[in-house]
Amino acid sequence: MQKPDVISPEQAGTLHGLFVERVRRTPNKVAYRYFFNNSWQEYTWGQMGQEVARWQAALSKEGLKKGDRVAIMLRNCPQWVMFDQAAMSLGLVVVPLYTVDRPDNLAYIVNNADAKVLCLETAEQWQALRTVRDQLSGVVRFVSCDTVRDNDEPRLKSATEYLPASAELQPAVPVDIAELASIIYTSGTTGKPKGVMLSHNNMLSNAHAALDTFTVRADDLYLSFLPLSHTFERTCGYYLAIMVGATVAYARSIPQLSEDMLIIKPTIMVSVPRIYERVYAAIRTKLEEAPPLKGKLFHLAVETGWARFLHQQGRGPWQATFLLWPILQKLVAQKILDKLGGRLRVAISGGAALAPEISRVFVGLGLAVVQGFGLTETSPIVTGNSLENNFPDSVGQPIRDVQIKLGENNALLVKGPNVMMGYWNNPEATSAMIDADGWLNTGDTGHISETGHVYITGRIKEIIVMSNGEKIPPTDMEIAILHDPLFDQVMVYGEARPYLVVLAVLNHEHWLQFAQETGVRPDMPEALTDSRVQGKILKRIALNLREFPGYAKVNRVLLLQEPWSIENGLLTPTLKIKRNKVTELFAEEIKQLYEGH
Question: Which of left, alpha, beta for 346 (phi over 0: left; psi -120 to 50: alpha)?
Fold first, then answer.
């Protein structure tokens, strides 16, 4: 049954209609919290309506017509929402850009979409864009939220000079719910990004259906830190929040996330596995330094909590150890959950697979972690676990109105109102992904249990086929190797090769300790290739891979100290490894790993 204050897609009509209806219903409720001028500030829904009106008035003077594209390159902040809503009120199509993307990639996207306006945030971003300014001749207006000094670009205005002091929100340009709302460029791990065309209905229906899976309430408080340029955050942490009238606080940055959690005390967290992995790694590091009794107490709390969870789900018996839970919760679980703000009601994980042992720890500590699955091309949610029917090692069941089935090679096929309109100006790529009957091939392989829960088993394109014909799922192996805190990042390689090798970025603190124990100087470059180091590390990798078949053996390892990042082009903005880029960069070193075979 629909809760009284939830705005349905029919009531909204468009993504801008959703916003207008929220402003009408709860004008005095706090919509957004954000950090500005060294303090946390707030906007109510009514104030947001006034700000959107200012952006609408300014954009309407650019001579743009319905369907024109405009680009936005801001970190998560209320201005992201203002620009997005103002643009859509004029029937414009919004193209989000990642603030950390390389200038050449940004120029490609802006040109490919033929964006007429580009909204950016800082003078530093403008300096980066200036290097490709000659490639951005189609842009009629650049707007910077910050003032740019020594501005020599007539198309560039700061927001203070661009926006009127006040304005009245004008009625929106008529737009059908099935029309194009946004082009979101996939950050793909290979090749040039493709523009995913999503309609108003794609995202509205997806957000509304997701509410059946995990309940979001008007009194919930989000802490938003995944980029709004990513569909996961945009649908779940932006449009869905407007739909129910929840408040969103924008984190200052990922490095300050721990501090912001303590200040904001969110009730809902939307995250990719990397954040849970970092918290888990910090817990493990502290346990290694603590007395053995503390470790035993922690494991008892997790095991007891996990057994309680299974019992509550109707999948496990009552146990006498449950009587210890109030003490274990006070001594162990609550102390850890307090570091996440202490009020988290549900933690949603998506974007990539969350290792079962990590979800088991958090669930055991009493944090409801629900995993889902989706992709940009599906707006993004396909499946999700509910709190009442949660199988943490699965990605849940299909959400309302979404169908899923297995195709050739157990590929997961999806059909529903969330499936994209297609790729922008790329009919070949569209027809390669969506068949004549409307089934979209996710590129992921999986199986569906008797309960209807979906389990992801790998990616079709990421399967390594060795020269002996054996097929290896690298992602599963990488997750297993990363159980060792010595490694921060790993990539398994071996396509058309006789054996597997691993490229591994070492954790600095653990490397210092490991080198000392091995008897090598960690600051010497040759330490990474020292035979004692290599031998020990291969043994540690083998230990973590003991559950894999014999042919999934790693013979050699390339140890690295510089992390792979978005900035150096080796990670996508959603923190996935760009396998082709890593392979290209270390081509010579990889070649040496196979020499003498």
Answer: beta
